[in-house]
Amino acid sequence: MTATLLALDTATEACSAALLHDGRTYRRAQVAPRLHAQLLLPMIEELLAEAGITLGEVDALVFGRGPGAFTGVRIATGMVQGLAFASDKPVIGISNLAALAQRAWREHGATRVCAAIDARMDEVYWGCYELQDGCMTLVGLEGVCAPEQVELPRGMTAASGAGTGWQYAGRMAVQVEQSWPQMLPDAADLIELALPLWQSGQTLDAAEAQPVYLRDRVATPKA
């Protein structure tokens, strides 16, 4: 089944958008902290124009649901909700940790990845993934903790590391074969992970699009 999917991600320093149409992926990306809200709509307009389609021809809207920066996660979620309500389209939320793992597979061929995003407050967002049928699949649970408290899920062996959390590699309780601490999520990888969900009918109504922070005290500094 062919699909036309539009994906947005603003959960980290990177702002990105991607469009899958007629089997081709178009993308825009820029590392620009605090400018996501200004950049996102022009990116979407450019992608639709480049593919020669309108928003009404998109089958579903995909967003990076977090974890990540509190404000950033809300920007992508709110934008997708607004577009989905306006165009009467379903939505698909994808973990930003999964997107990192997918990017590590796409760019480096890594099949087992421990994704870590700097969560500030001396913690990291953490999740481990293995490749299954071309998509990175969560093993165990995602969570947030100090670098010294991360751990591999039961049965998972040596892996690679992806994401800004790996700037704390010297403190990590898990050691990896290689890591890419500068890697940020990209909307193109959200599309790869969302495509099988779309094909199997695992979509949400716009009102059900919710961010996932993994941390309840999102705006409360540690004592």
TrEMBL record:
Residue stretches making up the Gcp-like domain: 31-151
InterPro entries registered for this protein in UniProt: ATPase_NBD, Gcp-like_dom, T6A_TsaB
TM ranges: none
Location in or out of the cell: Cytoplasm
Keyword Cytoplasm part of the UniProt annotation: yes
Keyword annotations from UniProtKB, A to Z: Cytoplasm, tRNA processing
One GO BP: tRNA threonylcarbamoyladenosine modification
Protein origin, superkingdom: Bacteria
Pfam family name, one: TsaD
GO cellular component: cytosol
Family designation: Belongs to the KAE1 / TsaD family. TsaB subfamily.
Protein name: tRNA threonylcarbamoyladenosine biosynthesis protein TsaB
UniProt organism field: Halopseudomonas formosensis
